[in-house]
Amino acid sequence: MSFDEPMPYVPATGRVQGVGNYTGGGGGGVTAHSALTGLAGDDHTQYHTDARGDVRYSPVITTQTNLVTADGADEFLLWDVSLAAFSKITKDNLLAGITGALVPQGNWDASTNTPALVSSTGTIGHLYIVSVAGTTMLDGVNEWNVGDSLYFANGVWNKVASQGRLVDTNIKTANHSVVIGERVLCDSVGGVFDVTLPAAPNNGDYLAVLDATGSFVTNNVTLVRGNAGQSIQGVASDLAMDVAGAYVELIYISATDDWRILDTPSGSFVPYTGALADVDLGTYNLITDAIQFNTTPSVVEADGMLHYDGTDKTLEIDIDVANGVKLQIGQETHIRIVNKTGVTITDGQVVYINGAQGNRPTAALAQADTISTSHVLGLATQDIADNAEGFITIHGLLRSFDTSGFTDGDDLFLSATVAGDVVNVAPTTPNNVVPLGTALNSTVNGTILVHVENVMSADVALTADSDLVAPTQKAVKAYVDAKQGGFISTAIQTSAYTASAGDRVLCDTSGGTFTVTLPATPTAGDMVNIMDVANSFSQSDKLTLGRNGESIINLADDLDLVVPKTSYSFVYDAVNGWLIQDNAPNLSKIANDYAEYTISASYTSAVATQEVVRFNTAVASSTNFNTGTYTYTAPNTGQYMVTFNVSYQYNSGAYWFNLGFFINGSYERYDGFSPYATGTGYQKNISTIMNLTAGDTLACSHQFQFAVGVNSGKMKIREL
Fold it and tell me: Which candidate in 188, 208, 435, 478 could, as Cys together with 249 as Cys, close a disulfide (CB 3.0–4.6 Å)?
């Protein structure tokens, strides 16, 4: 067949049109204008006119007998030069006669080799589509996947691998086993079901599953592995699809027996240069090694937009453009709250958390006058209407804040007088100090750096032992000083006082002697400190330490403190009573280091005159004192515990007596009293601590006046 001659002109009406008679020249063309008739109005009558068709390219047809209309989809009319006539041919005749044409032959089952194909044998141009994957060997190829093509040319069968072409199934509403090459269209509105993957897939096998009705979110569809050895995306378990509109394409990797999910379906590539409009990825992710943002962007900001901020040199997320809420990544931190205050929280006001609602904290205006309202969350980034949600800046830059009342670099604090307000002067006691941040400029449209710190008490002394917040350094020092040694100082005491465990009792006896009573029912380790803060302790203005039923230094006597400018710490021991803390470990000394002497059993005065008895030795004058029969010499310089016990019985005459000490021969009266009944026995005890220098001598004196009486006594001395 040859196409050397012109084709006939076949109009769209489907019928071959005649255009009149003509006599062909030597080459089959027009030899002279005069040979044509009926072509008026055309200077070049051999060319086309609408009325007569194109005589140059349409041979004359004198009859329409046996001609087939063009309406026959598989039939054509061709001019055969050798026959000088038209011939009718079919489409298959035409394709078979054209060298290199592909002639589709339908589907081929590569598993069963149906229809049967033989290597190096076939009809040129025959084309098959693989409908069932298999391993039939054809001209060296034995891996065939659904969708692959093969055609015969140059004496062999040639494979064209599928480029992801998938065949849509009808809508599936119940369990379905996937065939390689299928795109399974699913509708789970009626309930959950399974889509089971092939049990024995080949490397590169390809399929897809689509939520055709957006119903997976309500009733998921589960991708079930074809056998227990398979995995999906590297995980040896089935995959539940529960996202509305979900679409996954999977390819099988035989080396790992794994179905891998393709992030982007084959052929759905996104152009990255030259785009003239927004590129919509739909539901697919963008996966890449890096993203380079334009550092000088020209954008119209909108909620959800991410772009580079050239001023702050970071990426910015536009969160709520209408209200000016933007987040500079890495430089700010926001949190979303609910306003339940009953009023609008305005941009820049300070808030604290006062509850929770719907998995969000609720907030109210903070104020530094109480602890509960001083625990600041942050500053409002926008106006937040009552019962509405909004953003709080808890760290970073807060813009559009009026800093005109501040100086650049000012430290900013929570106000103690105006709820939610920011001030540049720290509150004073009894309020709290809450640092909020730093003013970066001084202007109406300014910026502050928010960096909220822990609440600190403005109480510089921490005088109350209460539930206070973190104190200032000055307060800590004052508090530690007050509690040094584990004691808490009392107010200065000038009259009778009962101590509690842990007290440091500050005493002033300049107004007269008084008693500090030790705690009742103490426990081991309880401590009390007694301090002369007025340099007032003396023989005449002594402080008596009442033992309150417990021993003091292993003695069942109260203790008189007469040495000025002294401080004594007592610790309670369950066996020995109250001990002086510095000597408490040396309990063995208590029993064996007393020097002791005894007054004679009795003494009777012969006359009703004042007599001074010095340890069974009488003196004639009431103004003289002798040294008696026993004198103690201090071996070391330091403090000594002295106990003097006297018993007597008054019988007749005038009555009174004094107790005192001779220190280096000089008498000091210590105490005195009068008896109350004739013939009644009385007892008087003295316990005191005094300072002695090595070599000092100490003796006790019992001075009394009555006509007839009996007395006896003894003294104990212990070096502390």
Answer: 208
